[in-house]
C-alpha cells in the first residue's frame, strides 16, 4: 500500500518522489467529524481510493491499475441527505438532488473516488469527495491537480493505495 500525501496548507501533493501543486475545497480543510454537506471543505484523514471514473475520448485507460470504468451520460452522484442513495453513484435523472458526472469543463475527465463517508454514508456529513482535474479555482471539497500531473500519477497507483489529507 502506498499513500498520496496532501499538505493542504502548502497546496502540495506528493507520492514518493513525485510532487505537484494541488487545490482543495474553497472552505479549506476540516476534520472529518466536522464536515457537512455543502460546506466546501476538504475532509482531513486517510481515505482509500475506491476506483477511477474516466470520460471516454478524453483520457487513455491502458496504463491504469486501479479498478476503473467509463463515465456514462446518465451517471450522477447523490448529494441529497434525504436520498437513500446519499453519497453513492446514481443514475440520472433522479427524484433527489444529484451531481452529474458529465460536466461542461474538463474537471471530471478523471475522477478518483475517495472512500470518505461511505462505509456506511451518514446523511449530511458530505458527499462526492473526489480527486479530480483542476478547475483553476478551489473545489467544492475535493482535491484537484492539473491534467498533466494526474496523468503522471495515475499509472503509478495500485489497489489498496490511499490519500492522506492533512492540514
From TrEMBL:
Report whether Cell wall biogenesis/degradation shows up as a keyword of the record. yes
Q: Which residues are named in the active-site annotation?
A: 132 (proton donor/acceptor), 142 (nucleophile)
What is the name listed in the Swiss-Prot or TrEMBL entry for this protein?
Answer: L,D-transpeptidase family protein
**PROSITE patterns in the cross-refs:** LD_TPASE (PS52029)
Question: Where do the L,D-TPase catalytic domain residues begin and end?
Answer: 1-166
From the UniProt annotation, give the residues forming the signal peptide. Answer: none
**What keywords are assigned to this protein?**
Cell shape, Cell wall biogenesis/degradation, Peptidoglycan synthesis
Q: In which pathway does it act?
A: Cell wall biogenesis; peptidoglycan biosynthesis
Matching entries from InterPro entries are given as:
LD_TPept_cat_dom
Alphabetical list of Pfam families matching this protein? YkuD
Cell wall biogenesis/degradation keyword on record: yes
